[in-house]
Amino acid sequence: MNKYLKFGTPVNPFLCYVDPAAAPAAVPAVPAVPAVPAVPAVPAVPATPPAAEPPATLAAVAAEGLEPTEAPLAPEINPETPPVVEGEEPPAAELTIPETADAYDFTLPDDTGLKDEKGDPFQFASDDPLVAKARALAVEHKMPQETLTAMMGVYVEAMKDAISTENASRTEASDTRRADALAELAYKDAAGKDISGEDRISKTLSGISELFGADDVATARDAMAGPKQVLFFEKIIKLANEGNIGKGGTSSADNLDGLSGEQKLHAIRSRSK
User: pTM for the complete prediction?
Assistant: First the structure.
């Protein structure tokens, strides 16, 4: 210990004396701490882009008074309609099953193209036996109204096809009969000239017009159902040209003025007997 030091006396460095023998041994050097390897730099995390705003709906655009953009708008979803999962069939519409036979509706649209005999759009008659049978079957099998309506559409199309086929058949038969009649009426005149059936009918109608007037030509034309009727009118014209019948005859019985076409034909037939 420093013999010059006294307890409580301030230390004067110039008065300090340290006994070398009492000096403590040198403190061993602390080994150097190994260098810590540098920590690699952490890559910067990219900034998260701001969340895109949901696309506006037509209702939102209208409410904000904005003009629709070219970007597609999100479809508006009816909360009452269940969403359709991709790959699944959409839910079927609810069908209507009438409770009674009379509740079934057999009314057809006006645009089916099927006409009745008056030319009006075809409709099923309420007393049609076919309708009564259809009502009974519909009730028995609890048929939805939508199914019955679809079946009526199929029936109408079948009727249209049948009528078209029948009309085509009748037209073909009528054309065949007309061709046969015209061929039968064709002949050669005194000069050897060929007179076709059409020319013979035209000449006969001209004679009717001169004999009875132009108003009766249509009646005569409708009466010419075949070659026999054409020959009948030719006989009338021949008799008139010979002076046996015609306008202003010698007696009131021979005068055909003022008579209708049907009355004139009846008078001529009566006198020809």
Answer: 0.43
pLDDT exceeds cutoff 60 at 16: no
Number of CB atoms found within 10 A of residue 200's CB: 19
Q: In angstroms, what is the C-alpha Rg of the chain?
A: 58
13 DSSP 8-state letter: G
* Helix axes of 227-241 and 197-212: crossing angle, nearest 10 degrees: 40
Handedness of CA 188, 194, 198, 204 (dihedral sign): negative
**Residue of 100, 80, 102 lying closest to 91 (CA atoms):** 80
pLDDT tops 70 at residue 21: no
φ, ψ of residue 187 to 5 degrees: the values are: -160, 175
What H or E segment, with its residue span, contains residue 195? strand 194-195
DSSP code for 251: S
Find residue 194's DSSP bridge partners.
Answer: 188
Residue 242: predicted pLDDT: 79
Our measurement of the distance from residue 73's CA atom to the centroid of its chain's CA atoms, rounded to an integer in Å, reads 29
| Calpha distance 85→3 (Å, rounded) | 102
Dihedral over Cα of 265, 267, 268, 273: its sign: positive
User: Are the CB atoms for 212 and 264 separated by under 8 Å?
Assistant: yes
- The length of the chain is 273
Cα–Cα–Cα angle for 55, 59, 64, rounded to 5 degrees:
85
The burial class, CB within 10 Å (0-12 / 13-18 / 19+), for 66 is exposed
Which of 101, 176, 87 minimizes the C-alpha distance to 142?
A: 101
DSSP string for residues in 145-166: HHHHHHHHHHHHHHHHHHHHHH
